[in-house]
Amino acid sequence: MRKTILVVWLLLCLAATAGAQSSGTVLLNAAGATFPYPIYSKWFDVYHQQHPNIQINYQSIGSGGGIRQLLAGTVDFGASDGPMSDEQLAQAKFKILHFPTVLGAVVPTYNVAGVASELNFTQKALAGIFLGKITKWNDPEIANANKGVSLPGADIVVVHRSDGSGTTYIWTDFLAKVSEEWKTKVGKGTSPNWPVGLGGKGNEGVTGLVKETPNSIGYIELIYAVQNNIAYGKVENPAGKFVKADLAGVTAAADKASKEIPDDFRVSITNAPGPASYPIASFTWLLIPAQIPDAAKRDAIKDFLKWMLNEGQNYNEGLSYSRLPKPVIAKELKAISQIQ
Amino acid sequence: MIRLRLLWRKSLNAVMLSLTGVAAFSVVSVLFLILGYLLLHGGTSLSWDFFTKLPKPVGEAGGGMANAIVGSLKLLLLAAVMGLPVGLLAGVYLAEFGGKTFSFVIRYTTDLLNGVPSIVIGIFAYSLVVLPVKHFSTLAGGVALAIMVIPITVRSTEEFLRSVPSSLREGAMALGASKWKTIATVILPAASGGILTGMLLALARVAGETAPLLFTAFSNRFWSPGWGQPSASLPVMIYTYAIAPYDDWHRQAWAAGLVLLMLVLLANLGCRLALNRRGSVRSA
Amino acid sequence: MSIAATTIEHAPHHRGRGTRALIQRLRHGDEVAHLLTLTFAAGILLLTSMLVYELWVNSHLSRAKFGWLFFWTRTWDPIFDNFGASPFIYGTLITSIVSLVIAVPLGIAAAIFLAELAPRKISDSISFLIDLLAAVPSVIYGLLGIFIVVPLMRTTIGPLLINTLGHLPTIGKLFKPPNYGVGFFTAGIVLAIMVVPFIISVSREVLLTVPRDQREAALSLGATRWESTWQVVIPWARTGILGSIFLALARALGETMAVTMVIGNDPKITASLLAPGYTIAAVIANEFTEATGDLHLSALIELGLVLFLMTFILNGLARLLIVATERGGGNLS
After folding, report:
1. Is C84 in the same domain as C177?
2. pTM for this one?
3. Which chains touch B (3 or more CB pairs under 8 A)?
4. Among B27, B261, B284, whose Cβ lies nearest the Cβ of C136?
5. ipTM of model
């Protein structure tokens, strides 16, 4: 009995002190978007190696979660794939600044019997499919854009995200811009009321469902498609061209927008003009409080932001994210001084 | 006629008994299937690194889950320390002391608590322990898990205390033992096998719970000192890694699942060994 | 009890001095024990009340806006702020029922085998392994569901059910195409695998506590092994077994991760078990972390409250069932 108590006591002490922090360590907790999680975790890791006393613990619980935890004050900063709305900003007890970090894209992926080539999707086609109006793969809207490809007469199985997600936000933002019906009937958001389709959890869930279900179509992040060699289709942009998502196409989409980017950086670049622009692209933002009382934390965040805008951008392309356009970077560097 | 009836009863006997065997066999084979799958997919990722290193950023191979393993152990410890005594003593109350209506209410409430989705319990613990202090902590995670441990423990404690034959009870009383002494020295030890099963079942269940931890212990890429900081845990890591698009992470997720099972296995073994040495009294 | 009480009162007489003190101490100990255990039992009540209170308060926005309509509305639209619980209530009920229909016969049969037929050592080791199943994280069940059960449903089991049972009159409605592999039935299967360890574990322990003389009495009267088990042992262990089924039901109702990975996450009410659906726990898990709208959040929490209510009612029904069938077997008689 005594031995057991001793053992338990030792274990308790061990557990409590495991990994005791040395003084001078700055621990920052952050939460939010899943879309940029790969690049963020890379950044925070590299930054930590360069500044061993600064630990940034980022968890991707979703854009909404990030916003909510930031508003509640349980994290030091947040991250979101969609900019905060005016109502959300009004809810905050403190001013919140948006800092774009990377650019990414969402692509349509499909599994159609007998089709091995890349399919072209017009804007009308995508809206129609996800509205449940276009139900067969050999519908003229799809067939006319893919002359030479024999499409089966099978029913289209739509796959979407079941969890609320920034990727969905970007996808629906695009659909709302190209289809008036989508805008009024479904709207844009992280958890829309999908007219049709199965829900898969996370990119993995959607990909899994699409892979396993014949004649299905879904949407996933570009980086995910690239990393897993998943075939995805081309999307028609406002200039009428079919663009396959890649880093150049995404940067082209951002270029026009970056010249007119508002001071608070909240802008949507889906359906961007320009012949080479990929239409389903988006910024993703870090949400930083304008007032940070703790000096050590404040300095750490400001320093990280500077690092992110300069050195950090070098890591983007390796993980299939696009760099921020130079004018945007310059503007952001100036905005850092707003953090006090 | 009697012969026919006998034949029928005998064949029914044979059929039914073999069906039970089939049932047991299928359940066991499902188990082996799961274990096999885990071993196959996760076994290769189990390395010394896995147990000692911190997670690496996305896309980079290697790294481990040392902090998650320690985190899970700490969380389970908290859950056990906070939840098991409550469950045990409440079970004792229901079996030994309770009045009719009050006991009914308590039992009903316990069953209700058991049916609350784990994420709702997480939300509850969040508003109780996280919001007031404005940061996530291991303690909050422990509280959430402790709440989940209570109902199973109560139910099994009560059930097995009741199953102790009355002859034991009356024997003790005849020797002049007071009620609490009877409970502590005779009834509890007699029911200890079942009670321990219930406790281990409860801990096993919460060991793998993800949802309640998402908003309480949160997670952490680094070590979590003490009890007041966010902490990584195996289930949350499994969840994060499993739905990510990286093969290396998938393998690590399976490995983590395997480690989790091993932990529970060890705990089970340890407790049973300790119990067997004391010896348990089954029905006479 | 009065016999025992007089026994205690008599005993100290033989111990001479300090009798009063001894009785006081004995009584005191009992009272302390009573009070202590009562406090903890009441603590559970307090905890649950606090939980319900939190749920009630935080769902206030949604309750105010939708009222009772919340139970009937079939829409779930976070963008246009229109929320209704009925597809989720349906999904939760159906998946739980399916899982119990599969798990209960399987579980009890396996428990009988382990408690009555298997040699003690084998029984112990197998039940030990089955206890391990309870520790497998929900996410892993979900993944296994995706990799194994879903393709199986889509390619083999689904078509089989459609072609056989699907043609029968009323039951046939339950097995109609389309069949994607994900759906109510798949979720039910995965849930069944998850809850069966609880049923087996607890039932086996309870069966083992049935006194040997009960079985022997039956056997000596000429009953077959099966008859002795089915007609004597099981009724004796009835409450314990029913208790294990409650445990299983409770877990099935609240299961989150595994279900959301295999149910298709489509908030629709369909008769066919092969169609995709949604449960309360799954939608809370999917949308809670991302819900920014206050009404959205409030609606999700109201769903949690609805689940609580469902558990309340189901438990009540089940208890009535126990009371109705109780004949006093298995307790301290």
Report:
1. yes
2. 0.81
3. A, C
4. B261
5. 0.80
